[in-house]
Write a structure and sequence with these properties.
There is one protein chain. With 378 residues, this protein is α/β, with parallel strands linked by helices. It has one domain: 3-Layer(aba) Sandwich (Rossmann fold). It is 37% helix and 19% strand. The protein has 11 helices and 17 strands. Helix 2 links the parallel strand 4 and strand 5. Helix 7 crosses helix 9. The radius of gyration is 21 Å and the shape is globular. The termini are far apart. It binds uridine-5'-diphosphate-4-deoxy-4-fluoro-alpha-D-galactose. Uridine-5'-diphosphate-4-deoxy-4-fluoro-alpha-D-galactose binds next to helix 7 and strand 11.
C-alpha cells in the first residue's frame, strides 16, 4: 500500500527530514492526486500522523467544494460523495470522488468502509427557502428522509461523528438580533423546518447511540475562492449576490428586490453575509474540536453584521463600477425580515476569525468568479 507523506504546512515544518517524498507547497495538490490515481487504497500521513478520512457528502457543490480544499490543506483526506444534482464534477477533479446519493444505503455503506471514514460532513441538501415553500416534499425527502438513511449507514458502520450544515433559517423570524444560539427555534419555511428536524434527531442520537455532532447554523454564505476555480453555481440561481452580478453582466436581466415594506431602515431584508472560505475555516475548527473532545455542540456561522438587499446592490455597484437594472417586487414567501448572527460563541470557543468582514470584500470575490466564467445557468 502506498503511503503518502505530506509536510505539515500549518506548522511550517516543510523541511523536516522524517517526511519522505515531500512535495513542494505549490505542487502538493497535483502530486497527491497523481499518486491517488495509482493506488486507491493509499494512506495519507500529515506531519507524521495518519490523516483522517472525512466523507464529504455534497462535496461537489458550492460550500462543499470550498471545504474539501480546506480539509486537504489542514491535513485531512476528504472523500467526496455527491449525486451531482447541484454539484459539478470539475469542482472535484483532483479529489477522491464517488457519484452517489445519500439515500442509497448500500452505496453509502460501501464508501464508509472502503475509505475507513472517521467523520461525515453533510452538504448534500437543498437550500432555497422560496423553493421549499413551493415544493416542501422535495425538501423533506432529501433533507430529512435521506439524511436519516445516511445516519443509519453511519451507525451501522460505527461512525459516530458528524458535522451538520444547519441554517439560520431554524430561527424563523427572531425577536432579538443579533441571534444567539440559545434563541428559540421557530422555523417558518419548510427548508428551515428540515434543518430544525435534523438538529432534533441529532440530539436524540447523542443520547441513544453516543453519536456526536457539530451543528453549524449558516447565515448567508457568499463569495468565492480567490483562485477563481470554484464559486457559487446554483442551477437555477436564486441567491441575491449572483443575481445582482448577473444584472451587471447581462443587460437583458433585471434584478428584483423582493419586498420594500419590511420593518427595516430601508424596507428591504437584512442578511448576514459570510465568505464561503471563512465558513469553511469554521468547519475545520469544529471538526478538530469534535475529534478532540467528542462533544456535540451548536454554532452560528455569520459575521455578526447585517446588510440590506439595497446595501448589497450598492456594494455590487461600488465593486464593479457599473450600473444595472433593478426593480421593486413583492415579498418572497418564507423570507424573515432580519437574520444577523451573534458570532461570539464561535469566536470564543473555536477561536474563529473571519477574514472577509465587509460586504465589498465578499462581493469582490464573487465578481471575480462570475465575470471570468461562462455560467452554467441561472
Ligand atoms: N433577494 C432579492 N432578490 C433576489 C434574490 C434574493 O431581493 O433576486 C433577497 C431575498 O428576499 C432575501 C435576501 O435577498 O431577503 C437574500 O436572499 P438569498 O436568496 O440570497 O438568501 P436567503 O437569505 O433566502 O437564504 C440563504 C440560504 C439559506 C440559508 C439562509 C440563512 O440560501 O440556505 O441564507 O440566512 F438558510
Amino acid at each position: 500500500m502506498l503511503r503518502i507523506w505530506i509536510p505539515d504546512l500549518a506548522r511550517n515544518d516543510e523541511g523536516k527530514k522524517e517526511i519522505p517524498g515531500q512535495v513542494r507547497k505549490d505542487e502538493m495538490t497535483k502530486d497527491i492526486s497523481d499518486q491517488i490515481k495509482n493506488d486507491r487504497d493509499a494512506q495519507f500521513y500529515f506531519g507524521g500522523i495518519l490523516m483522517k478520512s472525512i466523507l464529504v457528502t455534497g462535496g461537489a457543490g458550492y460550500i462543499g467544494s470550498h471545504v474539501i480544499r480546506l480539509l486537504r490543506k489542514n491535513g485531512f483526506h476528504p472523500v467526496v460523495y455527491d449525486n451531482l444534482s447541484g454539484g459539478f464534477k470539475d469542482f472535484v477533479s483532483s479529489f477522491d470522488f464517488i457519484e452517489g446519493d445519500i439515500g442509497d444505503f448500500d452505496k453509502v455503506m460501501f464508501v464508509l468502509k472502503k475509505y475507513d471514514i472517521q467523520c461525515v460532513m453533510n452538504f448534500a441538501s437543498f437550500i432555497a427557502v422560496g423553493e421549499s415553500v413551493q415544493n416542501p416534499l422535495k425538501y423533506y425527502e432529501n433533507n430529512v428522509a435521506k439524511t436519516l438513511t445516511l445516519f443509519k449507514a453511519m451507525l451501522q458502520s460505527n461512525i459516530k461523528q458528524f458535522i451538520f450544515s444547519s441554517s439560520a433559517a431554524v430561527y424563523g423570524n427572531p425577536a432579538v438580533v443579533p441571534i444567539l444560539e440559545e434563541s428559540p427555534m421557530k422555523p417558518e419555511s419548510p427548508y428551515g423546518k428540515t434543518k430544525y428536524s435534523i438538529e432534533e434527531v441529532l440530539k436524540d442520537l447523542t443520547v441513544s447511540d453516543s453519536f456526536h455532532a457539530m451543528s453549524l447554523r449558516y447565515f448567508n454564505a457568499a463569495g468565492a475562492d480567490e483562485s477563481g476555480q470554484i464559486g457559487e453555481s446554483h442551477v437555477p440561481e436564486t441567491h441575491l449576490i449572483p443575481l445582482v452580478i448577473r444584472a451587471v453582466l447581462d443587460d437583458s436581466y433585471t434584478v428584483t428586490i423582493y419586498g420594500t415594506d419590511y420593518d427595516t431602515p430601508d424596507g428591504t431584508c437584512i442578511r448576514d453575509y459570510i465568505h464561503v472560505n471563512d465558513l469553511g475555516e469554521a468547519h475545520i475548527l469544529a471538526l478538530k474540536k469534535l475529534i478532540e473532545t467528542n462533544q456535540s455542540d451548536v454554532f452560528n456561522l455569520g459575521n455578526g453584521k447585517g446588510f440590506s438587499v439595497k446595501e448589497v446592490i450598492e456594494s455590487v455597484r461600488r465593486v464593479t463600477g457599473r450600473d444595472f437594472k433593478i426593480q421593486e417586487g413583492e415579498r418572497r414567501k418564507g423570507d424573515p425580515a432580519i437574520l444577523v448572527a451573534s458570532s461570539n460563541k464561535v469566536k470564543l470557543q473555536l477561536q474563529w476569525q473571519p477574514h472577509y468582514t465587509h460586504i465589498d470584500s465578499i462581493v469582490a470575490t464573487a465578481w471575480k468568479w462570475e465575470s471570468q466564467q461562462k455560467r452554467k445557468g441561472y
